[in-house]
Description:
The protein is mainly beta.
Amino acid sequence: MKIQELIPIACLLALAAVAPAHAEGRWSLGLFAGESVSQNHGSALDARALAQVDPMLGIGMEAGMAYMNDAYRRQWVSFASDAGNALASLTDGITRNRGVYVGPAIKVGGVIYAIASAGMYEFSDNQAHTTSMRWGGSAGLGISGRGRFEPTAELRYRRAQDDVYTADAIQFTVGIHIQ
């Protein structure tokens, strides 16, 4: 999925969050930013719109990008890094070595909740060229405040693999749920 295709999807997510006031139930929009750790580390950005069909259950769509190296399976990875690589990795996940994803998401719980999603992942290499697309998913836990603007923190595991390649990352993000 190219960035030109992601922009209309992000606009639809934003429109879903501002649904008409006469709609049954609540809608929430979540915006998150944080750290993604794969072979090294980089940034992560998430956005999601959920329909709260029950106070403890939200169903909707999620889109975002995270640092995820797409590597051959069964490959040994070194975690060695120097100061230059650490400084350059601050934008990894946005500018290079990124996994862009979009798909359905489900949130179960209140202040402490579980979150899961599945969807299409598009990967790029260190030169920002698209390398592959495949299905993947994520699961994690979050903690949230109460009210109309809820500060939120999440810890998630993302994974997408096929017969040859695998990409996974542990992601920690902070953000806000707007209800």
